[in-house]
């Protein structure tokens, strides 16, 4: 691990050369759900020696339908994310959508996530860089791995060298995504940790219902291929009952299935 990764996970015990995990619900729904997921994933990660970072969106700004759930309130949700991190001694992350949000969210989390649709927004990248936090930029569905160099350059030129990149698939027609695994080694050439988003890469966007679909049965396939092609970390959204999740339930992993999946992935990582 590079220095800022080591510092981020300094309070955790993990196996040398293991991948790290970003996992949690799509969005904060309530305190009980946040606590249940943080506790369960933390326990599993400790058992398997995986460095773990808790993720939850404090609000969902990119919604297909105006009637979709967006959150319980910004400050309330940020406080719950922060509390979960403190209770289970975990670093935390959430996504931001405007330059103004960067400073606000940075008071509660350790890593600021830039949504894929916003990966070219210069003012947003510079505002995130100015906080001094790690900035995890999701590769846009319309962007190639090599072209993500420019997002990295913007952040580093602003004086922040703590940059991650996340692969999450490319648009394939109007209602599907496809993962080009060449993007993992290509983005690693930028000298930053590269993460595979194993759940959003299986989305089926732009459904006529106004609710994004997905193929969660392929999460294991996406994750295994990412490990095999050199991903440093995995991003997995998980929920106790995805069928009733208030956001992105169609592509989240059921919480009870996470441990078995991670056991397979740890074994695969060791083998290569």
Task: Describe it.
This protein is α/β, with parallel strands linked by helices. The chain is built from nine helices and 13 strands. It has helices at residues 3-8, 31-48, 74-87, 99-106, 122-130, 149-157, 183-188, 219-228, 258-271; strands spanning 20-24, 52-55, 92-95, 111-114, 134-138, 163-167, 170-171, 177-178, 194-197, 203-204, 213-214, 233-239, 253-254. α2 links the parallel β1 and β2 (52-55). The model is unreliable at 206-213 (pLDDT under 50).
Give a brief outline of the structure.
The chain is an alpha/beta fold.
Task: Record the SSE blueprint.
Elements: H1 3-8, E1 20-24, H2 31-48, E2 52-55, H3 74-87, E3 92-95, H4 99-106, E4 111-114, H5 122-130, E5 134-138, H6 149-157, E6 163-167, E7 170-171, E8 177-178, H7 183-188, E9 194-197, E10 203-204, E11 213-214, H8 219-228, E12 233-239, E13 253-254, H9 258-271
Parallel strand pairs: 1-2, 1-12, 2-3, 3-4, 4-5, 5-6, 6-9, 9-12, 12-13
Antiparallel strand pairs: 7-8, 10-11
